[in-house]
Q: What sequence folds into this?
């Protein structure tokens, strides 16, 4: 039955709070299920509201080195601004692709005939796009103006509120001090509040789009002017050859034409600023890369450790010494080793696979593999004697014993280890990215920290929530896998 | 009839020197082909150790074990073992568990032949509808039947059963007893059944041997069960022969129990203290 299957799926993944909702929707004893929903959803909501309330209260009290601690509302607006930036980035990418398509088709046509009717029609298209762009940005600018007015009004309201004698800084004799413009000097609290209000983001998406429209409008403009330059020099050349003109002049015109043709043919580089979604993506890819390395090294090693006590005794000191080493220490040596290997022509350059990615990924692997290693060893060495007796009675060969009995029996342990590994890896990743300047969440946090503004502090707080959410999701996935592979239901949540 | 398995002065001890504990001492035992022997005893007397010796999972400290006249050398598919706690591999299905046995003993079979063989043995214990289920989803009785099917599937000449039914409820137990007897009769196996239930022994076996209480456990006298087969549970209770034999065995067991309690030198002496009540 579909309902039972759904319930089983939620139970397997540990998302048990959906179960009463499904039961309620299917019409199962509304009173009981309602109470269950209230308990499973209501209590966390109460705890969350208490948390946000406390945060809101503390934000009015706590003074950071860059100003007041951002309030939940400020941080929420900041996260919306981040999403807006991401949408602008997507728009920019789409515009870039369109522009490149037009540029390359112009370049192709130009190689055949610089004055072809196709080129004329492409130029007309460009004109059309430019008009469209200017219309759009005009509309957006109107919206922005309204938003700006509202923002300035709220800022001046705050300024008004704090422009009172109790917020003035006074000299020793009780006289209010004046700033350079002759206005009374405000105390720190007032300055912080005014800064907070003026740093509040507004119309982020609209402004971003206008910027993109302007940029591409000028790109299209210079493309069109290059095309007309080429055509102009081509006409000159045609004229000179028809009249049998000066060789020197001919060569000069040809050279100029070629210069502009080259510019048209050249692919323009995409200059993205990167957005929060890109950082999240890169961070997840990096942690999975590190996790994959950790698993491929730790599982076989753990199996060998579990099978051979001698091997375990031999490498145990190494495990004990390396396990507690901080990611900060690992990342520095990793950076030097990786940069030593991938140097010069070998240096990795790519959207994902660059040196900095390797730095962070390998550090994750180095710090997180130990849990899988020791759990696998434990699982293999503590195999039930009953299973081994079965193997002996059936006279299984070494290979079958390993792959049919020992490894399957150790699978639940291995997955427990992998779950811990992924959790540790995600924690280590943020630090490694800061040090390795791999452009993930850790790097972004570090950038924001260097900015030294209340706004950046709010961005960091947004990132903390993102890191927590992604970490929790990864853990949920591993938990589900762990439940899925375990043949007895003893898995700790 | 020829002796299939013989144990001559077999001793088994764990540990060395002062820590040495002799679990079994001077075990002499012979079982003939086609015979059904039950070994009864209290728990913790070394019954499992005895069956592990017969299976070849353990080696005797001294003495020798002969199988078909030759010294026993490790476990073999000729002696199928049914373990007390089923020992099914929980990550394999019913069919998978049986298949693992079939595959190792008959590697020359094709996948289809193997499948047929697996189905045949799973059907023999009436579990064909559950062939794709995992042990987790089965009841205790069903699990033990899978274990029986697995042991039979390698076509052993001898079946060693270590308290196979002791964890089951009385009704399931009776059903499985009948099933095992039927298989024994049809497949002509030699069976050693370890049990703590005298009734079960009398109902199923040709011969009952009590195991004395360890350490230094020895086998007691043989009791031949001269009851006609099929033995029906219903008529048993009024059968005079049955009653006499049952009383004899139980009397013997009680006697050795008393002896062991008086002989027990290591018995813990409780300190002579009284709670303070004042």
A:
């Amino acid at each position: 039955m579909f309902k039972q299957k759904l319930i089983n799926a939620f139970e397997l993944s540990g998302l048990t709070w959906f179960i009463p909702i499904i039961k309620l929707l299917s019409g199962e004893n509304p009173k009981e299920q309602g109470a269950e929903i209230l308990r499973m959803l209501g209590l966390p909501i109460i705890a969350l509201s208490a948390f946000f309330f406390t945060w809101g209260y503390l934000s009015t009290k706590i003074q950071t080195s860059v100003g007041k601690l951002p309030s939940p509302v400020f941080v929420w607006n900041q996260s919306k601004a981040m999403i807006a930036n991401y949408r602008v980035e997507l728009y920019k990418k789409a515009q870039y692709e369109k522009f490149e398509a037009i540029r390359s088709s112009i370049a192709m046509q130009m190689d055949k005939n610089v004055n072809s009717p196709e080129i004329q029609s492409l130029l007309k298209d460009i004109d059309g796009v430019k008009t469209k762009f200017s219309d759009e940005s005009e509309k957006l600018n109107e919206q922005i103006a309204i938003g700006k007015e509202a923002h300035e009004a709220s800022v001046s309201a705050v300024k008004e509120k704090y422009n009172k004698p109790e917020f003035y800084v006074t000299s020793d004799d009780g006289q209010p001090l004046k700033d350079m413009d002759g206005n009374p000097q405000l105390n720190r609290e007032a300055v912080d509040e005014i800064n907070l209000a003026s740093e509040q983001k507004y119309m982020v998406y609209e402004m971003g789009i206008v910027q993109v429209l302007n940029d591409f409008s000028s790109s299209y403009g210079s493309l069109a002017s290059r095309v007309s330059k080429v055509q102009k020099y081509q006409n000159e050349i045609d004229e000179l050859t028809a009249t049998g003109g000066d060789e020197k002049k001919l060569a000069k015109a040809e050279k100029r034409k070629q210069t502009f043709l080259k510019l048209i043919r050249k692919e323009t580089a995409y200059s993205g600023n990167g957005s929060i979604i890109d950082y999240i993506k890169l961070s997840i890819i990096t942690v999975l890369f590190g996790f994959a390395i950790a698993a491929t090294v730790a599982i076989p090693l753990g199996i060998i450790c579990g099978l051979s006590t001698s091997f375990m005794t031999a490498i145990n000191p190494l495990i004990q010494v390396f396990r507690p080493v901080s990611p900060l220490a690992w990342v520095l040596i990793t950076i030097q080793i990786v940069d030593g290997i991938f140097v010069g022509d070998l240096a990795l350059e790519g959207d994902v696979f660059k040196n900095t990615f390797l730095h962070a990924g390998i550090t994750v692997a180095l710090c997180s593999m130990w849990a899988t290693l020791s759990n696998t060893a434990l699982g293999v060495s503590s195999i039930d004697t009953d299973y081994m007796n079965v193997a002996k009675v059936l006279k299984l060969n070494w290979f079958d014993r390993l792959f049919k009995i020992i490894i399957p029996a150790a699978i639940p342990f291995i997955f427990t280890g992998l779950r811990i590994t992924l959790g540790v890896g995600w924690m280590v990743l943020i630090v490694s990215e800061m040090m390795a300047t791999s452009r993930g969440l850790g790097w972004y946090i570090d950038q924001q920290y260097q900015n030294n503004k209340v706004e950046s502090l709010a961005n960091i707080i947004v990132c903390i929530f993102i890191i927590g959410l992604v970490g929790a999701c990864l853990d949920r996935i591993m938990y589900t896998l762990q439940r899925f592979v375990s043949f007895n239901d003893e898995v700790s949540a | 009839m020829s002796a299939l398995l013989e144990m001559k002065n077999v001793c088994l001890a764990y540990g060395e020197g002062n820590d040495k504990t002799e679990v079994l001492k001077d075990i002499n035992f012979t079982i003939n082909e086609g015979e059904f022997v039950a070994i009864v005893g209290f728990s913790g007397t070394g019954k499992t150790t005895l069956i592990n010796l017969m299976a070849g999972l353990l080696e005797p400290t001294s003495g020798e074990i002969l199988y078909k006249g030759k010294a026993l050398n490790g476990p073999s598919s000729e002696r199928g073992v049914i373990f007390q706690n089923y020992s099914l591999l929980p990550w394999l299905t019913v069919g998978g568990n049986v298949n693992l046995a079939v595959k190792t003993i008959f590697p020359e079979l094709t996948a289809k032949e193997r499948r047929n063989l697996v189905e045949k043995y799973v059907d023999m214990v009436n579990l064909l509808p559950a062939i794709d289920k995992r042990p987790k989803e089965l009841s205790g009785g069903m699990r033990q039947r899978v274990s029986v099917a697995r042991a039979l599937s390698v076509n052993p000449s001898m079946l060693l059963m270590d308290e196979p039914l002791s964890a089951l409820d009385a009704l399931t137990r009776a059903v499985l007893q009948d099933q095992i007897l039927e298989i024994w009769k049809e497949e002509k196996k030699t069976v050693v059944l370890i049990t703590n239930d005298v009734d079960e022994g009398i109902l199923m076996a040709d011969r009952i041997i009590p195991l004395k209480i360890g350490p230094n456990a020895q086998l007691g006298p043989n009791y031949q069960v001269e009851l006609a087969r099929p033995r029906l549970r219903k008529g048993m209770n009024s059968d005079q022969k049955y009653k006499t034999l049952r009383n004899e065995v139980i009397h013997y067991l009680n006697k050795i129990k008393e002896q062991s309690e008086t002989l027990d030198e290591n018995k813990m002496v409780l300190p002579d203290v009284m709670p303070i009540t004042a």
About this structure: The interface with chain A takes residues 52, 55, 57, 74-77, 79-81, 83, 85, 87, 89-92, 100-101, 104-105, 134-136, 154 of chain B (CB under 8 Å).
